Structure prediction request, 347 residues.
Amino acid sequence: MKRNFALILCMIFAVPVIADDKPDPAKVLEHLKKSEKQHAKKFEQIVKKQIKSRKKVVLIAGPKSHGYGSHEHKAGCMLFKKLLDEAIGDKLETVVVTNGWPKDESVFDGADAIVIYSDGGGRHPIMRKLKSFKALVANGVGVGCIHYGVEVPRGSAGFAMLDATGGFFETNWSVNPHWRTINAKLAEKHPITRGVKPYEMQDEWYYHMRFPGKMQGVTPILSAHPPKSTLKRKDGPHSGNPHVRKAVEEGKIQHLMWAVDRAEAGDKYKGRGFGFTGGHFHWNWGHPDHRKLILNGIAWIAGLEVPEEGVPAGKVTVDDLKANQDYEPNNKVDFEQIEKNLNVWQK
Prediction:
């Protein structure tokens, strides 16, 4: 930008001269008056072009939810922004809006992607703004949804989410137990898994998502076999149903993160999307591979080339995880154990 600015200054002061090579003050003044607006406009265009060379993602954090350390939508989004700014801020502008869908939708101007980390179901941010959401998808804007944000009601919202991300949590089909992933499988050649190592994590991993027939255009990113103990609850909208029981009994692997390229899916819209069912416990973002999946996913749906080693996940401290939470700390949280976990995860 400095070189462009210098060039513009040279253009501004490249004024007419008279035969004896001495500037004619009158002509200099006249030239500057005429060229001032022209060159200012050129400079503005150069700056805008350089700014636009960055992609833009809007992270939509939902309102307060479960309590300290769980469903910390704002704190999670602010952490993602911090890490993205540090790692690829020269390529990606990251904007965070809180308390759900923004009242001023101009924040979406120029957006290449949006990510929704929020409570879902009937309280999902898109439910009152479905028309706006569909318009973004139709314009090729990438969409990522995290944890409860993958759940929307069946019907119009469900179809919209299938278009946007390739899958969603459907009540009386999907389930939301707490369990530990063991021997989880990562997609081998997808950009979202670049630099991600296999890991185990205790979380509220939703599974048995609703996907399009034959998973058309959808790539499983993180998959695992849930233990039968995840279905010990009675049947209910979120706890169990004959369909999921049969799937687990037959040993079918369940997809906990997935991605879609809408063009490859045969969709009428362009763009990319992902869904990630973990994210209940805020402290889990201290694991570099857990958060790298999200950082890579955000970069990918925004249209960036994910580095071979993935988007750098940085190093997260306990203070980083405490920051921006919606609730005050309570005496039930073992910060010493969290510190130990971080030391093991990030060694």
Remarks:
- The two ends are 39 Å apart (CA to CA).
- The beta strands are 55-61, 92-97, 113-117, 142-146, 178-181, 185-186, 201-204, 218-224, 254-261, 272-276.
- The chain has a mean pLDDT of 90.
